[in-house]
Write a structure and sequence with these properties.
Layout: H1 10-13, H2 18-38, H3 44-68
């Protein structure tokens, strides 16, 4: 007999949903991209290399967020 009991994570017990966490992650990634785009302290080559890393992450997490936590219709 193998019963799996799902216990809530500490964040879930605190009332923070995974959807909120995903939205915060996306906000951070998009903020990083905006900051990188407008930074005067980063060379153009470094900026392009960093954008090549960040863009697939943003696309991946936007896709996952859309699949797992679809927008609620009003």
């Amino acid at each position: 007999m193998s019963e799996v009991i799902d216990f809530p994570t500490p964040r879930e017990r605190a009332g923070v949903s995974m959807k909120e966490d995903m939205e915060n992650l996306l906000d951070c990634l998009l903020g990083a991209m905006i900051g990188l785009k407008h930074s005067e302290n980063v060379s153009e080559d470094d900026r392009e290399a960093d954008m090549e890393v960040l863009l697939p992450l943003v696309v991946k997490y936007l896709t996952v967020s859309g699949e797992r936590y679809p927008a609620e219709e009003e």
